[in-house]
Each structure stands twice: as C-alpha cells, then as structure tokens.
Amino acid sequence: MKFKFLPVLGLLLILCNLAQAQNPGDVAINEIMYAPTPAANEWFELYNNTTSPFNMANWKWKDATATLRTFTTQNIDLPANGYAVVCQDSAVFRAVFPGFTGILLQPANGWSALNNTGNENLIIFNASNVVVDSILFTNTWGGGSGNRSMERVNPAIPTNQQTNWGSSVATIGATPNQRNSIARLNNDLALNILLFNSNNPLIGTNLQITANVKNRGLLPANTYSVSFYDDYNDDGNPTPNELINTVNSSSPLNAGDSINYNTSKVMDSLGIRQFIAVVNYTSDEDTSNNKRTGTVTVIAGGGFDSLVINEIMYAPTSNAGKEWFEIYNKTSNPVNLFNWKWKDATSSVNTITTQTINIPAGGFVVVCEDSAAVKSFYPNNPGIYLQSTGWSALNNTGDNLVLFNSTGIVIDSITFTSSWGGSTNNKSLERISVQGPSNLQTNWGTCVSTIGATPNKINSLAPKPNDLALNKITFSRTIPALGDTLGIIAQVKNRGLNSAPSYSVAFYDDYNKDSIAAPNELKTTINSTGVLNAGDSINVTYSQILDSAGLRQYIAVVNYGADEDTSNNKYVASIEVAGGSTAGRVIINEIMYDEPTGECEWIEIYNNSDSIVNLKNWKVSDNSLTQIVITANDYFLNPLSFAVISQSGAIFTIHPAIDSSKVIINSSFPSLNNTGDAVIVYKINGAVSDRVDYLPDWGGVNSSLERIDINGVSNDSSNWASSIACEKSTPTLINSISAAVHYQRNDLIVNEIMAAPLTGHPEYIELYNPTSQNINIVGWLLSETGGSTSMADTCSAIIKPGMYAVIAADTNIYNAFPYLRTPDSTQKVFIAGSLGLNNDADLVKIADVFRTMIDSVQYSDNWYNPNLPGSGRSLEKINPALNGNDGKSWSSCTYPNGGSPGLKNSIFTNQNITTGEITVSPNPFSPDGDGYEDFTIISYKLKNAVSQVRMKIFDVKGRLIKTILNNQTSGPEGQIVYNGLDDENRKLRLGIYIIFLESLNDQNGVVETIKSTMVIGAKL
Question: What is the pTM (predicted TM-score) of this model?
Fold first, then answer.
C-alpha cells in the first residue's frame, strides 16, 4: 500500500506546483492604494491574466525594503481572470469598502509601509520565491492624492510603463475586485476619419465618401455596419430621412486595426454640403466616438443650375399675399416649365404648372400659394405668376426648397434658416447673385425694397456697378501630405457691371482658425496683371510648403479700391494635411496661457515615441515666430514621458508635489496671448515637431488647456479642453480631461431665468437634471449676449438626477432666498461673480467642458404673464420636458418672493397624455394668475403621420372664442399649452367650452375631426 501511495502523493505535489505562476506577468499587479486617508489602509490588488487558477499559499511580497511579507499560508486559489486584494488591515479595508466581495488577504507577519512620494518598489513572489511581477513607480504615475488608488490601464501591457498607469476616476476613488475605471474597453469601435474624393465636386457628379473605422477595443469586432447620411439641415444629427446607405462588415476587425468603407452620392445642389458617417456596433461600450462629419463645396457645371431659386416669401404677414417663391432663368434661351415640380422638406412633390409656360432668357416666374392674392398685393410688378398645383407650407423657422425639371432632375435647391433673412416684417429672402452658390448663406439676405419684396423684378440686393468677389478657394492637391508644396488657388470674380482695371489678392495662413485675416498671418500679396471684365473670373495662386499636419485653414482677400460691396471680398477654406499622427513625435500636450493667481505660463510636451529625445538646442516660439532655445544643456526626455517648460519657478507654488526633474525653467519663454496665440516646438534641425494655434473658446481660461487624445490632431479645437483638475492643470501627469464625460443635448436644461431682479437681489439661472445620471459641471460655461461665465470652478460639482443647480450672480441670492443657505439634497448653488442678463431679451446657453451645446433658450420679455409685474419675477418653465425656445412653455413665477430657485417651479404642470384622441390636463383649470393650474396642456393624437391641423375653441352656444392652431403642420401627435384667453386676450368666463380639431391632408382635404370639452373653473 505504501508503494502505491507515494507515487500518488508525488503526482499531487507536481500538480500543486503546476498551479503556481510559471511565467512573469501571469499574475499582474493591477491596482495600488499607497497614499490612503487614513494611512492605515494601504493595499494592492492582483489580477490573474490566465485561464487557470493559481494557489497563493506561501506567496510573498516586498517593497523597497528587504522584508518579505507572506500573503497567506492557506490554500487559497486566485481564480482565472480573477482578483485578490492584499491589505494592511482587513477590518479597516472592509469599513472603507463595505460592499467588497472577493479574496481579501492580510499578511500575518506585518506590513511594509508604501512611500507616498518618491520612488517605491513592489515585488510579488510565488511559493517558490520566483518573481511573478514587479513595479518601480513614483507619485507622478497617479494615485498620490485625493484618497485615490493608482490603477493599471491594461494588465497585458508591461508593468513598468508609466503610460499604463493613472489615478482611479471611480466615484469612490478605487475599484478593488472590479474592472479598473481607466482600463481599455473590450468593445469600442470608432469612426476615425471621414474623407471625400474631392473637396469641390462638380454638380451632377458622383461624390465618393470614405469612412475609416478603427477598433480601439481589446476584442475583435465581428459584426458591425457604417451608415452614411446627407446632413441636409447641417445640424450634425443623422436622421432616417437623411440616410444615404448602410454598409455591413464582411469580416471581423481585430483590436487596433482599421478599415475603410465607401459609398457615393450624386451632387444635386450647389454650395456647401455636410455629410455624416456613423459606425453601428451592438457591443460598443463607448458610442461617443462613433460619429464624424465633413463638408464639401459643390461647384457649378453642365447646366444643372440653368434656372435658380431667386427669391422666397416664406413668412408673410396676415392678408399680405400668402407664400411664394421666384425662379430666374440664367440662360440665353427660354425654358418651358411644363410639368416642372418643386418640394419643401416634406415628401410631397407639387407641380408648378401643367401648361406650356415659357420663362424667357434672363426672365422671372413667380410660383404662388395663391396667385390672385400675390398679384393683388404687388400691383406694380407685372409678370408671370403661376399658382402651384398643391402647396406645402414653408416653415417660418427655415425650410428646404428643391426645383425639378419635367424629367425629375434636380435643377436647383436651397436649405435655409430664418437667420438667412426674410423672416419678419413681410420681407422676402433675396438671392444676391444668380451666379453664386444656392446654399451659401452669404449669397442671401433680407430684401431692402420699400415694399418688402421684388417679385418679377431684379432683386434689391443684386450686383453693384463695381464689385469684385473672392468666389472660392481650391487646392492643387486633394489630400496633401506633410512636406508637400500646396497650391492655394483663389478665384476672383467680377460680379459688378464695370471692368476692374487694377486690384490685388492677399493670402493668409489662418493659424488660429478664427477666419480673421490678421497682419501676422499674411503670407503674400499678388497684384493683378490685367483688366478683369464684368462677369469674368480669374485664378490667382499662392504656393506653400506644408510644415505641419492636420486641419489647415487659409484666407484669401481681394482688395479693389472702387469696390462698392466688400462683404464678399474674403473666402475661407480648409484642408486636411496627411501625416497628422502624433506617433513618433514630441508633441504639445498642455498649455497654461491664462494662468490663475500665483501661477506662471508654461507648456507641457510629451515624447510620443519609443526613443529617448535630447531636447538640447530645441526651440519654442509663439505666433511671433521668434524662436527661443528651450535648454542649452543635455536634457533627455524618455519615451512616453512628460516635460514642462516654465516661465518661472512659480509653478512649484501651485504644484508642490511636481517632479522638479521634469521641469525646465526658462525665463525667456514667450508670453502667450490670452486672446489666442500659437505654440510651436522646433527640433534641433529647425523642423517643426508640433504646432498648436489655440483660441480662448478652445478652453484654458483661468486654467490650463489640455489635449484630449495624445494621438489626435494637434490643431483640432475638438481635441482640446479646459483642465478639470483641482489644481486647474496637470503638469507632468496624465491630463484630467481624458476622464471627462461627453454629455448629450438636454442632459441638463435651463428651467428658470431671473433676468430683472429687484434692487439688491441677484440675477440667476436655474438648471435641472432630468436624466438618471450624475452630471459633473466642472469646466462648463454659461453664456449670454454679454459673455461667458464658468458655472463651477470647484473640482467636484455633481448635479444628481432630479437636482436643481442655481447659478447666481453674487451671494445676495442667500438674502433673497434664505432657504438656499442650507440647501437640501436636491439643491446646489454656485456663485458666478457676474451674469449680465438683458431684461428684454437674451440668448442663454450652457455648454459642457468640450463646448458641446447642452441647452439654449432665446427668451423675450413678452413671455412674462401680463397680469403680473415683470420686474422682480423670474421666468419659469411650465414643464421641463417642453420646448425651451417656445414662449408658450414659459411664464412668470407666481410666488410672492418672485422666484423659486432650487424648487419645483410655481407654475409647474404635468403632461398627462392618455390613449384618447384629445386629452386636457388639468381639466378643469383656473387661469386666474395665482400660480395654481393657470395653464392646461391640450394633447392630441392623429391618424396621419403628417397633417395640417386646425384647432379652435367654441362656447356652448357655438360662438368662436379662440383659434389655437390655423393650418399648422403636425406629426401624429402634439401638445399645446393654453392660457385660458380668447382671441382678444381676455380671460374666459367660467363654464364649459368645446375644443374642435380638424386634421387635413397635404391637399387641404379634411380627413379627421375630433371634439372634446374643457372646463374653466375657479377656487371656492
């Protein structure tokens, strides 16, 4: 029996040994809490990188001292892909992390205290005293303050790389027995680049669109797709009606790889066109990088724009002739309009005429909703007026207008908004030049004629006798690369009636991309060599060697002494220069140009290569291009490491823990402009290593400007943002902005505005979080016409779900509303220092740290309740879910103190939509101005997807009391806030009223009628 037992025992011992880690890195140090508060709670975490468990009996560790500490003498398995925490005091650890579950080990033979500053060494041994993993780190790697652990980014990457570590961004400061908060995601596809085969395609040609998809995750992506959109309304949001094509993947995309997907679109209209590409991946854990936008400028060719839309009356006043638009014939021959058609942003196509009607060469035709009404309103403008067969009402806020010939080919189109002109005072929107692009906003404006429009006549904004225009800029290369010679070709066009004998063209390299031609950006001025006749154009070329990659912007300006219209003398164009990857280069990573009190100006550079770089005799300059030697001594910058070039030693006052060996003090460091400047780093051979042309709207006001993506384009404003660190910058550390969250529109909404407070009371804005997520507003901006204000400068400003945030001009908010001195869990108050809201009207905007617009409200003084005094009362939103830019969604606060900051609004009303066809809530309601049920919400549901809606209110005797909607375009459902007033703005008497709704199709045929009752009541 003994003879048989011994071999079995030996086999068990062999299997036990096999269960120990055999290779370095099989078990990795994954997280270290070396500077906790209190100090008696140090710990570190191990992670099993393999698919097999390991027995940790008699495993040990040591720090920089020689003492070995044993984890445990018991047979405890570290599971495959599992965690184990080794701690100084298990009781204290569980008190700090009460929800912890997992393996927790406290060494029986004591603890070696980990250093909070300077170098520290941590080594792990298995039971055979073989080193399993080790790390030599400093507090600059992360985790040195704020009771936060130092986390590993990727356990599969070598341990001793600083870029593989950083401070935990978890809410509780650490992630024991959990996936690290800064770890790379398993599944993450990104839409990397959007390219076009031409930045200036000809109209009628096929534009090739290429989207580059990159797998930034750790796992292969097996099945995904890319959708391409034609962004008709240029709002940056892809919608189903804008979809061009969806391309499905044909094979998996491995981690780190990228691939191109293509589609094409016929260019059917002139001017600037915007496109969007989106990668769709079900398993994606980060969708913030799934979308890219890009633009091209479509130019004329082949006669597609022979007839153009020349004038639009889209917002006529009552009894003023109704809607119409004008067509102009640019050709030298008449054109037959038989069976020509048009449409707006809806899908309905309307016929202009079924008659043989010729529009003469150089002539006009006016297409009308009601031709008799239009001719009657403009009796002195004879010509051709055609009443369209069917009419699609043009939106007063902007619309799309497309012109088709009899074969269905698009001849011209325009997508305009009310900001282009023609939206008020019964004035039309006029085209300035029939030769200019249709979709160029600067080619349109409000009519300046005394009668407000010029149907069948030359537009009031038409060309002047002497008028040179910078028509466009093109480039000699479609996709230029770093070091190439690029030709910038400016096309000058004589839009005037007279010849231009002498003029010049100035070219600017718009370094800061502010579209302003500054003297220090001037590259050359080229004088004309001959006369430019009326209607002719000429190309003027300036060539430049490209010394930096990424997005480059250029400006051309034509100078002509006799010019009568200089508004069209400038053109701005940009082009992407290949070779923009920062890999293998020393790059600019952080800029302190608008320093807080006590700080000095400095920049941080980063060696984004795998080689040591000696910075001796490297140089730096600002936009003046005066080069300053960084250091005359040897200074070796290690791979993937930081160095700071500082104007003075004041940097150590704000950052006492900074590693001084990584700071180069240079008193000659150029003074950086707060209004915008350039920072350029030059190699020893004079070549540009990196360049950033920043503006204050990029961020960095009273804090540093931090780079978001090390590998992103240097001169891309979207790759920079303000630091959100407590010290307002992160010299020699990983940038704080890398951990910031990308928020969406309406994640935080403007809910109350105090624009006209009583004397001694402050202005304020109240924000409300309607989402289910915490929102950190550090670095956010609140903007109004007078300027922008930082909403919160504390290093942690969390607005929880359902919480109100009050941004007050000064501390008088506490005197006006004493309850805010001790805010409850739903309230937070921030003192902005100043606001400057206009009493009569203003535009209030809130933007996150990436300058993404989260909400905006254009308020007006006619939004106040006329029955309440306006001064000293805030504007309140009736319901947070309503449209914030609709005046009917707002009214005056009814509380005696004039406001409700941090509280539910005094006029709050619920939206209770039932399955019925019309719902009124509340019903009854009492519009008596006391703040209780002063409004009701009328909700309706219709059979048709798109309808024209009429809604009227009658009394019980059938008399019309109020017209709420009159031929308004609507979807299948809608809501109207009703204030209980009649058409003469008089309060309705108590009693029962009838709501009558008619739904009409696009030919104005009634397809549905609905009735309901509404009760006006009063309190007993």
Answer: 0.41
806 within 8 A of 820, measured Cβ to Cβ: yes
Token pair 């004039």 is found at: 898
Residues 85, 91: Cα–Cα separation, whole Å = 13
Q: For residue 567, what is the DSSP state?
A: G
The partner residues of 965 in beta bridges, in order of sequence, read 951
pLDDT digits (tens, 9 = 90+) for 678-731: 999 998 888 888 889 899 888 888 889 999 988 888 888 888 988 888 888 999
**896 preceded by a cis bond (ω within 30 of 0):** no
Q: Which secondary structure element, helix H or strand E, spans residue 818, and what is its range? A: none
Q: What is the C-alpha separation between 907 and 888, in angstroms, rounded?
A: 12
Nearest of 938, 934, 929, 928 to residue 962 by alpha carbon: 938
- CA torsion sign for 883, 886, 889, 892 is positive
Element of type H or E holding 15: helix 2-18
Beta-bridged to residue 61, according to DSSP, are 69, 124
Question: Exposed (0-12), middle (13-18) or buried (19+): which is 85, by Cβ within 10 Å?
Answer: buried
| Amino acid found at 418 | S
Burial of 972-989, coded b for 16+ CB within 10 Å and e otherwise, reads eebbbbbbbeeeeeeebe
Q: Cα–Cα distance between 605 and 69 in angstroms, integer?
A: 40
Q: What is the pLDDT of residues 335-375, one digit of tens each?
A: 888 889 999 988 889 999 988 888 998 899 999 998 888 99
Which residues, 6 or more positions from 102, have their beta carbon under 8 angstroms from its beta carbon? Answer: 82, 83, 84, 85, 176, 177
The torsion defined by the Cα of 400, 405, 409 and 410, in degrees rounded to 10, comes to -30
3-state SS of the chain: helix, strand, coil percent to 5?
10, 40, 55
Task: Classify each residue of 656-682 as buried b or exposed e, where b means 16 or more C-beta atoms within 10 Å of its C-beta.
Answer: eebbeebbbbbeebbebbeebbbbbbb
Which token pair is 293?
A: 């936008």
The most distant pair of C-alpha atoms in the chain lies apart, rounded to whole Å, by 124
875-886 pLDDT tens trace: 999 888 888 888
Could you tell me the CA-to-CA distances from 18 to 21, 58, 307 in Å, in that order? 8, 15, 83
CB 366 within 8 A of CB 383: yes
Helix or strand holding residue 150 (H, E) = strand 150-152
What single letter denotes the amino acid at residue 645?
A: I
CA atoms within 13 A on the CB side of 1018: 8
Tell me which residue of 201, 648, 262 sits closest to 437, measured CA to CA. Answer: 201
Q: What is the DSSP string of 921-956?
A: ESSSB--SSSSSS--EEEEEE-SSSSEEEEEEEEET
CA atoms of 600 and 731, how far apart (whole Å): 12
> Does the structure show a pLDDT above 80 at 3?
no
813 Cβ neighbours under 8 A, 6+ residues apart: 761, 762, 764, 806, 820, 829, 831, 901
Dihedral in degrees, nearest 10, Cα atoms 714, 717, 718, 723: 90
Phi-psi region of 749 (alpha: psi -120 to 50; beta: other; left: phi over 0): beta
Q: How far is CA 150 from CA 63, 659, 728, in A?
A: 16, 17, 20
Please provide the DSSP assignment of 867-880 as one string.
TS-STT--EEES-T
Helix (H, G, I), strand (E, B) or coil at 890: strand
Q: Taking a C-beta distance cutoff of 8 angstroms, is the pair 819, 836 a contact?
A: no
Q: How far is CA 20 from CA 383, 410, 715, 891, in A?
A: 95, 73, 51, 72
Note whether 242 and 235 are within 8 A (CB).
no
Q: If you count them, how many residues does the chain have? A: 1020
pLDDT, tens digit, 9 for 90 and up, residues 899-911: 999 999 887 876 5
Q: Are strands 206-215 and 189-196 parallel, antiparallel or unpaired?
A: antiparallel
